[in-house]
Specification:
The structure holds two protein chains of two kinds. Helices cover about 80% and strands about 0% of the residues of chain A. Chain A is an all-alpha fold. Classes of the chains: A mainly alpha, B alpha/beta. Chains A and B meet through helix 5 and helix 6 of A and helix 2 and helix 4 of B. Bound molecules: adenosine-5'-diphosphate and magnesium ion.
Chain lengths: ~220, ~375
């Protein structure tokens, strides 16, 4: 593995790029999925349309999306923003259902008593419903994070470099080292995202670890 | 005062949950809405804080039409307690209780010190403050629910079957403490239950509803037991009405029989010397009755395990029901009467209690009921 030693800095910068392309859409996607999921959870008529509609987005092949977006958006063909938008779309596709189900699982009695105590709608959402939906949303976010890390590598084919570039590089030269390094780096990155999400979740849900009634 | 003025609620699916309900819940009193499941109790309750909007009629709080009040403002002035407490699972107990004060902008310190004060008030140790609801038993959660509803000291409390989901022993404790609390606080309370016993125990005024929020009878508990207006109410109120009504009649100063007694550790001879008709009462050091014993049947000094404990004890001046029960349940047939500290005063026989009951007039029908039933008032009999 002298290859890795020689190219360590390059690999690190590709990994940084990869994390950026997979991570930022995770946050943007969550922000978009929250209101959509909220709408779906509150409106029985809209629910199937929103869930189906956003779910279908995930079935668009990534390469097709990467190629189509520059035609629809004001970005140039090699612009990484295309990738950010595409990954945000995938994140939304995965998270709307999660958010809707997480909010839907908040016990009715809790919502009722929040309303009865005089919470207005937005405040109730922010300080009661959303915190209680965190465990479910976080589970969805972990899936989306892994999915993003994996899909982003396809972006090499439209000229946006990240860890996926190592695969094309190794492939074109029939040289295994960059491919192995790329795969391992992707796995590590996915793990890193996973641990980060888990940690934040633990931090904001201390109540989840409280035990049953002390005898 | 909360006043329902011909209030109706029809749900979009056509269900008529409440039909022209007219009712007044007086200030500082507990009004219980009771009736079979699905008769519109919850719907009626929720129309007060506008969780449900009436299709017709008005609800007044004092002389304000609730429909014209700001919704959130209205609700923050009304405590609300529901069956499974509905605590926020993600907030500590102290944060749960502090909810409404925080919404009202009291600031964290003031809200939390108020919450701690209420925690103690509802009988929970301060060490529970930092726990989460899942760490409390059902009964404890319900206490927190009550504390949370009281936090901002609202003049009105709405309670929807708050004690129904806990086991009978805990329920009884919660009811007793609730009455004690209400004795101090004097809130205007509307309390919903399907349990007529609970209604009779807690209500200053009871509204019996039949289907569709139809008010079958509105009376105080004694009147409800003595004069159910029709078969529906009579059936709903249930059996043993005559006996249960004695709960609402105070005992007089009975002419008590002196009862000689022995302490634990008395010899069979001492016990036999003190016995009357084969039984003697055993007291503790503070003269509180422990149980009865038959001296003839013991061969060793009196021990706690030897006592017959079936007898109940009645407090002097308490309800006639307790005095009668003390006599009926006593193995010696002598009903034990104690003072407020629980110390023995004397005994009374069932026939003496019954004689007193026979002396008493039954509660008279209300004038409106007399008229409806086509009866004329009982004439005052000259002495
Ligand atoms: N949101 C609703 N939509 C349609 N029907 C309802 C709704 N809420 C309650 N009901 C119906 O209204 C009636 C009264 O309900 P409720 O007030 O909850 O009764 P209770 O509390 O006395 O058991 C029942 O027949 C119930 O099924
Ligand atoms: Mg109900």
């Amino acid at each position: 593995m002298t290859w890795l030693r020689d190219h360590f800095v390059d690999v690190l910068s590709l990994a940084g790029q990869h994390a950026y392309l997979a991570g930022v859409p995770l946050v943007l996607g969550l922000l978009i999925a929250l209101p959509l999921g909220w709408l779906a959870s509150r409106n029985k008529v809209l629910y199937p349309f929103l869930i189906m509609g956003t779910g279908l987005l995930y079935t668009i092949p990534s390469l097709a999306l990467f190629i189509m977006l520059p035609l629809l958006l004001p970005f140039k063909i090699l612009d990484p923003n295309n990738v950010l938008v595409a990954m945000t779309i995938y994140t939304v596709a995965l998270l709307v259902r999660t958010v809707a189900d997480g909010l839907g699982a908040v016990p009715d009695a809790v919502n009722q008593s929040a309303t009865a105590m005089g919470y207005k709608r937005l405040r109730r959402f922010m300080s009661v419903e959303l915190p209680l939906a965190v465990p479910v949303i976080s589970a969805g976010l972990r899936v989306a994070a892994v999915s993003n890390v994996s899909i982003v590598s396809v972006a090499t084919l439209i000229g946006v470099s990240q860890l996926g570039s190592l695969f094309t590089d190794g492939f074109s030269r029939a040289f295994l080292d960059p491919i192995i390094v790329g795969v391992v780096a992707c796995v590590l990155l996915a793990l890193l995202f996973d641990v980060a999400i888990l940690l934040v979740t633990r931090l904001v849900t201390p109540w989840q670890r409280a035990g049953s009634p002390a005898a | 005062m909360i006043r329902f003025d011909a209030v109706s609620k029809q749900f979009p699916d056509g269900t008529k949950a409440v039909d022209e309900l007219t009712l007044e819940a007086p200030t500082g009193k507990i009004t219980v809405l009771v009736g079979p499941s699905g008769c519109g109790k919850t719907t009626s309750l929720r129309m007060i804080n506008r969780m449900i909007t009436p299709t017709d009629g008005r609800i007044w709080i004092d002389d304000q039409d609730t429909a014209e009040m700001d919704e959130a403002q209205l609700r923050r002035g009304i405590g609300y307690v529901i069956q499974h407490a509905g605590l926020f699972p993600h907030r500590t107990i102290v944060a749960n209780i502090a909810t409404v004060p925080m919404l009202l902008g009291w600031g964290r310190r003031k809200a939390e010190s108020r919450a701690l004060e209420l925690l103690e008030r509802v009988g929970l140790p301060a060490s529970y403050a930092k726990r989460y609801p899942a760490q409390l038993s059902g009964g404890q959660q319900q206490r927190v629910g009550v504390a949370r509803a009281l936090a901002a000291d609202p003049p009105i409390m709405l309670m929807d079957e708050p004690f129904s989901a806990v086991d009978p022993i805990v329920r009884e404790q919660l009811q007793d403490e609730f009455l004690r609390l209400q004795g101090d606080l004097g809130k205007t309370i509307v309390f919903v239950t399907h349990d007529i016993e609970e209604a009779i125990k807690l209500g200053d005024q009871i509204a019996v509803l039949r289907g569709s929020g139809n008010l079958a009878q509105l009376s105080d508990p004694a009147q409800l037991l003595a004069h159910p207006v029709d078969d529906f109410v009579a059936d709903f109120v249930g059996k043993d009405r005559g006996y249960r009504a004695l709960s609402f009649q105070q005992s007089p100063q009975f002419p008590l029989s002196r009862e000689s007694s022995v302490p634990l550790g008395a010899t069979p001879e001492q016990a036999a010397a003190a016995a009357r008709d084969g039984w003697v009462l055993v007291l503790d050091a503070d003269r509180r009755p422990l149980g009865w014993i038959e001296p003839d049947r013991i061969t060793a000094p009196v021990r706690s395990e030897m006592l017959a404990r079936g007898g109940t004890v009645a407090t002097a001046g308490g309800p006639l029901r307790n005095a009668l029960d003390a006599a009926l349940s006593s193995p010696s047939r002598r009903g034990v009467i104690v003072d407020d500290q629980g110390a023995l005063l004397g005994t009374v026989r069932a026939y003496e209690v019954l004689a007193e009951i026979e002396e008493r007039a039954r509660p008279e029908l209300d004038e409106a009921d007399l008229e409806r039933a086509g009866l004329r008032p009982v004439e005052e009999t000259p002495e």
